[in-house]
Amino acid sequence: PAVVIMPIETSLSPSPARIILVFALSISLSSAFQVPLNLGTGHTRESLSMCSSHEGTSSAESLALRRVFLQRVAFAAALFPSLVSAEAPIEVDAEKRGSQRGGALVEQDFPFFKGKYPPRVLVFEELPKQEGSKPIYNAWGACVQDSCSYVPLKQRYDGYKKYKDSTTRASSILQGALLQSATGSAFDVDEGKVFEKALRRGVLFANILLISENYGTSNEALAARFYVNEAYFGMVQLQKEAGAGNTAAAKEWWLLCRDSWNSYLTLINRAIVPKVGDKFPLISTSP
User: What is the pTM of this model?
Assistant: First the structure.
């Protein structure tokens, strides 16, 4: 089939032309793999995810599910050319995390696109990077040094001014009302809502700091979304356990929330230089 070359779009919302192209690619892949799309069979992302359990399925069905998963990766690659395929899919019996838990704040995070989970506590040097041996291109040609990944100082500075207060507020609530809930106090619903809103703003903040308009969504931005999802899930579970009077479990969920938020801060702090503002301090408190 003919190869269609399209400019890279920086917006997360694909154009109608791209959607049509992606759908055509999906059909081509389906034909190539001899696997029907079965759009009307009721399959959901949950049932097609490689991290779902498929006990009792035949090898043929498992192979078909894997091929559909590869179609999803191709779909993601067409929407976000900056992403590369995951080295290996998430293990079938792995504990679901991030967007794969369901009910996440943002679905399009690292495991959604990469098929792998970042570590619970981020060590940045261990975060998967783009392969340096492969040339990277944007709409204007090959990238030179950091020309594709560089985020202008003004963009970062403006984003910092806009989201600094909500980020600081999230850290304050985590060390205040949420920590108190983990140690026996009643869960403060109002503070929980403020924390959730701050997490949603955190996704936008990370997009501004970590995504270059010259390229597209970065691994770092996807990981930031994953950690926001994990912090939100930890807060939701903390509220449930605190309401049930289960202090031991509430402490564990608070620790997940803290570790995830610290990992998020580690990611965005890399983009915050003195001309942008002060880096956000990590939380060292324990219940």
Answer: 0.65
